[in-house]
Every structure is written in structure tokens, then in C-alpha cells.
Design brief:
The protein is of the alpha+beta class. The protein has a single domain, classed as Aminopeptidase (3-Layer(aba) Sandwich). It has a 7-stranded mixed β-sheet with strand order 1-2-3-4-5-7-6, sandwiched between helices. Strand 6 and strand 7 form a beta hairpin. The longest helix is centred in the middle third of the chain and has 15 residues. The chain starts with a strand and ends in a 10-residue tail after the last strand.
Amino acid sequence: MEIITCDLRHSTAILAILNEAIATSTALYDYQPRTPEMMDAWYAAKEAGRYPVIGVESDAGELMGFATYGSFRAWPAYKYTVEHSVYVDSKFRGMGIARLLMERLIGLARGQDLHTMIGVIDAENAASIAFHQSLGFTRCGTLQQAGFKFGRWLDVEFHQLILPTPAHPEDG
């Protein structure tokens, strides 16, 4: 296993991982599978925002999982806060891949002088909540009945990790 920087050659694998999560879980509150064109726009937004997309590849070169972060909210005062995502292909879950990815992603956020990482997690996803807590994230709020999928209302929890960066934050 090796942590790599993902690029467009990984978009098919990332698309498959995301679409599996859309179809089978509440990890994403999407209804319809994403398209290759949507992935092109997604990558363009990551590049424009200087947001990393990292992955773990198997020795055979198969993408096992990926993680990224992006804008939390569009207003300038949120410039030190990002919302992250981490997804592992269902064939490779339980192997510590998400932890490898998140530890690297946290390091990258520090390196970019970010201050707060936000995880938005379905309130019934006990495994993801416990995972985030094991990395130092704390629950900071719940939005009740914020989503509707699979015929039921979904609550979403916000979990945050406050980083010691930047050393000298600035307005503007």
C-alpha cells in the first residue's frame, strides 16, 4: 500500500467508490450516481482551490480509497476551515486505509495553515463517528432531519478538529 496524490487517471475509481456509497449508504446524501463529467468538474474545483485529493493504492495499482477536503462555506471568513471526505472501496474496508488517509490529510491541512477540519457524518454512522473521535474530532452539533433518503429522515452530525495552525491568522 502506498499513499499517492490522485489525479484524473484515478477519476474512474473514485467515481466507482462514490457511486457505490450513493447507492448503498447514507455516507452521501445524493440520490443519483455521479457522471464522469461531474468528476471532471469536481477535479477542476479541487485544483482551483488548491485542495488535495489523496489515495491509497494497492501493490497492483488499484485505488483502495481516497480522501480530500474543500471549502466549508463560501464566505471569506471561513478561509481557515475545510470540510473533508474519506471513502474506502468496500473491498478494502477494515484494513486501516481510512486512518492512513486521514492522518495524511490532517498533516496537509496543517501544511496549508488551515485551522478547522469539519466532518459531516450521518448520525446513524456509528463507525464513522467513532473513527473521527479516535482522531481527535469532537461532535459540535446535530442538524435533525436535514436529509431524506431511503424513505426516512436523516440527522447529520458535525464533528470538528481544531488544528494549531495558522500561527498568525489574518482578516481579509
